[in-house]
Amino acid sequence: MPTFRFSSVMDAPVESVWAFHESAGALERLLPPDGSARLVSRRGGLEPGASAELELRFGPFRRRWVARHTECVPLSHFCDVQERGPFRLWRHRHGFEAAGAARRRLSDEVEFSLPLAPLSDWLCAPVVKRILKKMFRERHARTAEDCGAGILEQSGG
Q1: Element counts in the chain: helices (H) and strands (E)
Q2: Integer distance in angstroms from the first to the last C-alpha of the chain?
Q3: pTM of the entire predicted model
Q4: Range of the domain at 85
Q5: 31-44 burial by CB neighbour count: b if 16+ within 10 A, else e?
Q6: 140 with 26: CB under 8 angstroms?
Q7: How far is CA 84 from the centre of its chain?
């Protein structure tokens, strides 16, 4: 199963970065700015059982994506899984790790599988990873901006 990892070191305390992710408008702020995804509904915050429904747009096509949070350890990490959507499997872990005094490593790890796997995973995973790299680079930049922090380092893909 393909795995994508991306991380950024920010000059912000964990409390600021975590508070951003807990805030009511964080998910909307982290959606792609091109309008290819919009929030339809949201239940709860980061706690297990919380969920969000998105509408994804691929040209003239629309697809619903329902994600449910399965794990949350405040100031450490939270996880979500796709219940319905374009992937055969999607598991996403958001991590918040110390990276020195007043610095935080924000990390995202996504395990995914596409419909018609394993052939589709082998053929399409590189394309999916390029899309995810662009998306997470933008998401981390918005997170840093909203936390009043700078990005000191980025890695992954």
Answers
A1: 3, 8
A2: 15
A3: 0.91
A4: 3-156
A5: beeeeebeeeeeee
A6: no
A7: 16
| pLDDT 10s digits, 80-139 | 999 999 999 999 999 999 887 778 899 999 999 988 767 667 778 888 899 999 999 999
Coil, strand or helix at 86: coil
Return the CATH number at 125: 3.30.530.20
Of 10-14, 47-51, 67-71, 83-87, which gets the smallest average pLDDT? 10-14
Instruction: Report the alpha-carbon distance of residue 141 to residue 30 in Å, rounded.
Output: 10
Which parts of the chain fold into alpha helices (H)?
14-22, 26-30, 119-146
Q: Structural domain tally of the chain?
A: 1
SS3 of 99-114: the string is CCCCCEEEEEEEEEEC
- Taking every pair of Cα atoms in the chain, the longest distance, rounded to a whole number of angstroms, is 48
